[in-house]
Specification:
By secondary structure, the chain is an alpha/beta fold. Helices cover 35% and strands 21% of the residues. It contains 22 helices and 28 strands. α12 packs antiparallel against α13 and α18 packs parallel to α19. The longest helix is centred in the middle third of the chain and has 20 residues, at 269-288. Bound molecules: zinc ion (ZN).
């Protein structure tokens, strides 16, 4: 019997000691970070109220109770009972029985009503039928990505379960060494923005945190190949943790699987789905630009299959000596600050990922309370001494004013925006202004990936700002479903029709005018001086967006037959600063100031050389903590 089996056997005995006499279990097993406990008495377990919570806290594990399969009624007989127990208002949209595990997946519009107070409805279901219920939210707006990911994982259940069992045994492998040290190697995004990647290592474990690209750069990849990260083969990494889905953090996660990585990726559920959306788009863009991408969509599917999702705040074992907890970072949907607890109190490190300190219309501000933190790895995008942003309220006011003036004069407004995040924020600003009468009702057209990205946001209300979540959750007031929003579904034919209509607002990708449907809008609306184009996001050097922003009135566009022609732009061009998914300089300082506890060391990364150095010295002066602005490929030993 190997060590892991011995450990499982001792857990089995410990559980029997804790359980009351009348409850019995047949076996225990690991599936990923969870402990699965099998019993022939699932109904009695459900009757014993809090017993699962007692087990979880005394074993310090996430626990799932599953029925022995021979004790179960056939699905047909139980469906009716389930529908009787769950209140009608929960609006169950599907029941999916998994006969290999004894679980029934319930999809409902209001999952809270399926769960019941403290899980009471779920327990009642098990009490009556023995099956273990699991509940997911039916997306209020149809999302192709969410349903594709869910269907794919359904098809892959068998393989997925064997991955989870393998990962579970690996997490709980015996410790090999009594040596104690903690090191971090920077593989990218140091004194630069892009290609985020870090390797955290101990005598037992090697964890890769993020693996992103650096768009528009020759050095697109993090230092995976020259560093020890992949030097010993991708399987020398035990786990990957992904802070959020932006490509400068996630683009090369699928590439790891081409290198032979076969382990888990830990991320929040929306990060998994957005990673799918954005990496597929990365492949599309590469194809359009005639580049050969380093991996195929098959590798994206592998990445999704290997992703173990964890909700915010859930302390999760990912190695014999490391627990990770993801906390809200306020930056994009599902974005997280990753907190690593290493070696039973030996050391604690926080990776900020990208953060927004104060919060936005979409998200609460970043979490600042942690049980312990010795070192913080902090983003510095706007860490430079002059990087102060316009107040968001002022930005919103400016946007509304420009929309008002343009449309009252009979013009149309075009807003190029990134599909994930910024678009939804602009939608919320316009929706509120129209609801309160500040703006008169206007049609708002959403073009490109924006509708899909919005649907993914609506599918995960628990990751949104409190008041927005409530509107989607309880009040059937989902602002994203407001009647003024229209999805462009019929391509250029529909754009032509809109061109001939009255005043309206168009939000379209891409945000930096580097391609996508925004190009058609320039053609349709660019030569009318009554119209206005409003920039609401950063325009990188070398992009068409930057050129238009700096006053170009003639731009080259590709015409028929691959020839380039010149397009004359006569519309007004405005820039509204102040919308950002990132904390500005003050926000970054305030974040560290309000961190509890305050870290002993801060590594300033994810900013250009000036920003990381400026932030590093400001933090040192204000808080008297040791700070660094490391270069790529530096290694820090913390213990
Ligand atoms: Zn980001």
């Amino acid at each position: 019997m190997n060590e892991v089996d011995k450990k499982l056997e001792s857990i089995h005995e410990k559980i029997l000691d804790i359980l009351p006499e009348n409850l019995s279990i047949s076996s225990v097993n690991y599936e990923g970070p969870e402990l699965v406990v099998y019993t022939s008495d699932p109904k009695k377990f459900a009757e014993s109220g809090d017993i699962v919570r007692t087990l979880a806290s005394s074993l310090q594990k996430r626990i799932t109770i599953r029925p022995d399969l021979d004790s179960l009624l056939p699905p047909k007989q139980t469906e009716e009972i389930i529908h009787k127990i769950i209140p009608k208002e929960a609006n169950v949209t599907s029941l999916d029985f998994h006969e290999d595990t004894g679980e029934v997946l319930i999809e409902a519009t209001r999952p809270g009503m399926v769960i019941g107070r403290h899980g009471s409805t779920m327990r009642e279901i098990t009490q009556q039928i023995g099956w273990t219920p699991d509940v997911v939210r039916a997306p209020p707006i149809d999302s192709t990505v969410v349903s594709n990911v869910r269907n794919f994982l359904k098809q892959q259940r068998k393989e997925r379960r064997s991955i989870l069992e393998r990962v579970g045994r690996h997490i709980h492998r015996p410790k090999k060494s009594s040596d104690k040290w903690v090191r971090l190697t920077t593989l990218g995004c140091c004194q630069e923005v892009g290609r985020a990647s870090f390797l955290l290592s101990t005598p037992e474990t090697r964890i890769l945190i993020d693996c992103g690209d650096k768009p528009g750069s020759e050095d697109e990849f993090p230092y995976l190949h020259v560093s020890e990260a992949l030097g010993a083969g991708a399987n020398s990494i035990d786990a990957v943790v992904l802070t959020h889905a932006h490509l400068d953090h996630s683009a090369f996660i699928p590439l790891l699987f081409r290198y032979g990585y076969d382990g888990p990726i830990y991320a929040t559920e929306p990060t998994r789905d957005l990673m799918g959306l954005l990496t597929l788009d990365y492949l599309d863009v590469a194809a359009q630009e005639g580049r050969t991408p380093p991996y195929t969509s098959e590798m994206i599917r592998e990445a999704i299959k290997h992703t173990i999702t964890i909700p915010y705040g859930s302390v999760t074992d990912i190695a014999p000596d490391i627990k990770v907890t993801l906390h809200n970072a306020g930056h994009i949907l599902g974005s997280s600050i990753a907190h690593f607890h290493i070696g039973d109190g030996l050391y604690n490190i926080c990776f900020s990922g990208d953060i927004h300190y104060r919060g936005t219309r979409l998200f609460n501000g970043a979490v600042t309370d942690f049980p312990r933190v010795e070192t913080l790895i902090l983003e510095s995008t706007y860490g430079g001494r002059n990087d102060y942003q316009t107040d968001q309220k002022q930005a919103e006011q400016n946007l509304i004013e420009i929309v008002k003036t343009t449309t009252e004069n009979g013009g149309k407004v075009i807003i190029p925006a990134f599909a994930v995040g910024r678009s939804q924020e602009i939608m919320l600003v316009l929706e509120e202004a129209m609801r309160t009468g500040e703006l008169s009702e206007l049609p708002v057209y959403l073009d490109g990936m924006i509708w899909e990205a919005t649907a993914i946001h609506a599918a995960y209300p628990e990751y949104l700002r409190d008041d927005l979540r409530k509107r989607i959750f309880y009040d059937d007031e989902n602002p994203f479903l407001a009647p003024q929003f229209h999805h462009i579904e019929r391509g250029d034919e529909q754009r032509q029709e809109i061109k001939d209509e009255g005043p309206c607002v168009i939000i379209s990708t891409s945000g930096m005018i580097t391609g996508g449907p925004i190009m058609s809008w320039l053609e349709h609306l660019g030569n009318d001086p009554d119209n206005t184009l409003i920039f609401v996001g950063y325009q990188a050097h070398g992009t068409l967006g930057r050129r238009i922003q700096s006053g170009w009135e003639e731009i080259p566009v590709s015409g028929s037959g691959g020839r380039t022609r010149t397009l004359k732009l006569k519309f007004n061009v405005e820039t509204v600063d102040g919308f950002s998914g990132h904390a500005d300089r003050q926000g970054l300082l305030d974040f560290v100031k309000s961190m509890h506890p305050r870290p002993e060391k801060v590594l300033c990364v994810h900013g250009d050389e000036r920003s990381t150095r400026d932030l590093s010295s400001a933090l040192y002066r204000q808080f008297n903590i040791r700070t660094f602005a490391p270069k790529n490929l530096e290694t820090f030993r913390f213990v």
